Amino acid sequence: MPAAALKPKPLPTQSTAERPVLFDSPYEPAVKRPLPAGRPRQWYVTHNRRLKAMRLAIALLDSGVYLPAQADDETIRGTAREIGMRPPSDTTCRMVRALMRYSR
Known about the structure:
Order of helices and strands: HHHH
Distance between the termini: 48 Å
Shape: extended
Strand content: under 5%
């Protein structure tokens, strides 16, 4: 009889992983590093706008807004208020919807 047939089968609720998976709880954000110097001002503006749009898109997804059609400007601005962020511009709101659209 093969050795694999002698092993007890795990219960459906038991993990089959060889070792436990470590979760990094409680969550701590990564250490912020300064942005590289010497770029044009517009690069920094765009970079920060992308970061803000990404944070808003993640917050919307966490709150149950999964489709870009559900995320109108007021919904996005309300989410920004909830997470303690300044209200985003129309451009940033469009960028949030674009991120939600292309993440599928």
